[in-house]
Amino acid sequence: MAEVYRVTRQVARSNASVLLLGETGTGKELIAKAIHTLSARNSGPFVRVNCGALSESLLESELFGHVRGSFTGAVANRTGRFEAAHTGTIFLDEINSTTPKLQVKLLRVLQEREFERVGDTQTVRVDTRVVAASNRDLLEEIDKENFREDLYYRLNVVPIHLPPLRQRREDVPELVGHFLNIYNEDNDRYVVHIDRKALEALQDYDWPGNVRELQNCIEGAVVMATGDELTVDLLPSTVLGQKSPRNMRSGRTADVETLTCDLVQQGLATAGPQEDNLHMKIVNRVERELIAQVMQSCDNVQTKAAAKLGINRNTLHKKLKEYGLESDSAED
Q1: Counting beta carbons within 10 angstroms of the beta carbon of residue 152, is it exposed (0 to 12), middle (13 to 18) or buried (19 or more)?
Q2: Residue 310 DSSP SS3
Q3: Same domain, yes or no, for 175 and 134?
Q4: Residue 107's closest CA among 149, 66, 65, 137?
Q5: Angstrom distances, CA of residue 323 to CA of 100, 272, 285, 320
Q6: Residue 314 sits in which domain range?
Q7: In b/e form, how buried is each residue of 229-268, taking b as 16+ CB within 10 angstroms?
Q8: What is the mean pLDDT of each run of 10 residues along the chain (332 residues)?
Q9: Is 150 in the same domain as 187?
Q10: Do 118 and 61 form a contact (C-beta atoms < 8 A)?
Q11: Where is the domain boundary, 198, 222, 241?
Q12: Measuring CA to CA, how many Å separate 8 from each of 3, 5, 85?
């Protein structure tokens, strides 16, 4: 990240196009804003466009504007985002989502600094700096013929790669402190301490949603906190080592794979009529491990654990008895 900041400061002083590359949630828009703020264009507008949120026709009109009557619903002339960003910076997020047809028009803007509004023949000239971002490998998109190679090289004058949060876990404590300050103020709270176990859990988690996911996690913890400490029971179940939504959709987790390997080694993964029995063994074993982890994170308090698991306390009590986990549990 120190290298990211160094390059950001250096490139901000120029007018060069910048391509920000990184997973969703790594902070590409923040870097784009920093480039604008640190540049000589900071008195001009900063305009953001999410290229993945609109269809081709709507995005073309959004970027370049249109004239009255150019298509159904065009009841008046409209200024596009490139014109709105004149003398400033336009940030094209998810540039990989644009169609080849639109990419031709974007290439012309980058090369000639001019374009025509949709339905118009008059050429519009602009002085707008372009910062683009992609959460996909654009070279792979070029190989798939989804992205123009000439546009890529026009955008890729100065590339900045933003590393995922799992590759810079040492930044987590500082980020947590930063978000605590923000959400304490927003919610009139005073959560100023972090439990050691909670911090360890935050640093051990892989953060597939990166900094944005961490930010949401801390906001939720501040809202739900009743004291001045961020404790482990305030963290989402995914952070505590349970199934993440992404893995639940795919139907696979590292725990399931590990348990399956264990069962195979134990000679339980046999073919034929016993396959249903194997399935139940895997399900029961994963469920037992999940309940044990949640109970531990909730200090063996059944009410808290049941709420975190999304089941009622009677059901949890039966499961604890079934799996032989009731000895250490507390009723309230």
Answers
A1: buried
A2: coil
A3: no
A4: 149
A5: 57, 27, 9, 5
A6: 247-332
A7: ebbbbbbbbbbbbbbbeebeeeeebebbeebbeeeeeeee
A8: 95 96 94 97 95 85 80 74 94 94 93 86 90 94 94 96 95 95 93 94 94 94 93 91 48 41 44 54 76 83 78 81 74 58
A9: no
A10: yes
A11: 241
A12: 8, 5, 20
For residue 178 the two structure tokens come to 């930063």
Instruction: Give me the sign of the Cα torsion angle 95, 98, 102, 103.
Output: positive
Tell me the one-letter amino acid at 106.
L
d(CA 192, CA 194): 7
Give the span between the Cα atoms of 28 and 36, in whole angstroms: 13
CA 5, 10, 15, 17 torsion-angle sign: negative
Cβ atoms within 10 Å, residue 128: 22
Are residue 101 and residue 184 in the same domain, yes or no?
no
Backbone angles phi, psi at 208, to 5 degrees: -60, -25
Who contacts 136 (Cβ-Cβ below 8 Å, separation ≥6)? 96
Q: Which H or E element spans position 160?
A: strand 158-161
Q: pLDDT digit string (tens) for 25-37?
A: 999 999 999 999 9
pTM, entire model: 0.69
